Amino acid sequence: MLHCFLAVHRDELIERCRSKASNSVGVVARATDEIDHGVPFFLDQLIKTLKVEQSAHPIDGLKVSGGSGGTTLGLSELGDIAAQHGRDLMHRGFTVEQVVHGYGDLCQSITDLAFERHEPVKVEEFRTLNRCLDNAIAMAVAEFNHQRDSLAAETHAKMHLMEIGFFAHELRNFLNTATLALVVITEENLSLSGATCAVLNRALIGMRALIDRSLTDVRMSAGLPIQHQLFDMADFIDELKLSSMLEAHVKKCRFIVQAVECGLMIEADRDLLLSAAGNLLQNAFKFTLPGTEVILSCFARGNRILIEVEDHGKGLLPAEIEKIFHPFAQTGSDRSGLGLGLAIARRCVEANKGVLSVRTKATSGCVFTIDLPRQISSN
């Protein structure tokens, strides 16, 4: 009988599965400890099912392995064990392909060994083997996917709560600073050109930048359609200049805007591009050294249009260059803000079929470049 054959050769079957796992290559390469984790338990349940079905009460075999077409968690011993197997493998870093191949290796090992030892397998026994494998794979994969989806949802929820927490924290700080400054200005009848007013301006600028970044992030995350429009880059740069002059004044640095060649046109989502360039300017004002300059320029290079924001800060180390575009990444000593500005800027640029890059200058500071396709006039 097959259950006797499996019981006698149990250790050999486990070793064959371990050998198959160690010899696997490519996407299905597996660690041999996966075999020790699942195969012995399944074999025991298979042997038990076959044994019960050869008894006076064969129907009791369904309580062990479940019926044809799958089983429900909690209704069979095999289903519960397979579900636990899938759960454990997911948390230990295995893939769903590795889960499936583990059971497949066992089926092949049983078939090969039975053929080699000339062990006759009855049709009913072979059907039971297939039913047990089918149920075990179904439950293991279902539980694996459930655990994976639950973990992904939990991670997403934590990230979302973190973003909300950071946003509320930063907004509260800016609001508190603005409130205190306004109270002092009102009670002391201070000049609107004094230092306290500058503090108020900085707080208001910070709140505006924080809200702008958050709104842009919401729009990008929601997958709202890109609103393409044709516009002149000279007007676009003038708008950036007007919105950034006050921030340059508050940061006590010079803001130089290079003249833009007439007729440079681009077709893009203007709001997203304004957000991207605005984030780069805010980053430049944040890190440029006091008394230095931030330079904004826009020019054509072949069939591309480049927007560059240059600062005179401490620059970036090679290992920091890619990291700064990750959400919540903050590499400098100034850790104010959420660390989302550059990540949002890159998403906005890429949504417009552009590329955002950065290079460190030989002297000091960085140059951030937005590289976009140029719209050639048909006139």
From TrEMBL:
GO terms for molecular function: phosphorelay sensor kinase activity. PROSITE patterns: HIS_KIN. PANTHER family: HYBRID SIGNAL TRANSDUCTION HISTIDINE KINASE C, TWO-COMPONENT HISTIDINE KINASE. This is histidine kinase. It comes from the Bacteria. Residues 166-376 form the Histidine kinase domain. Keywords: Phosphoprotein. Its EC number is 2.7.13.3.
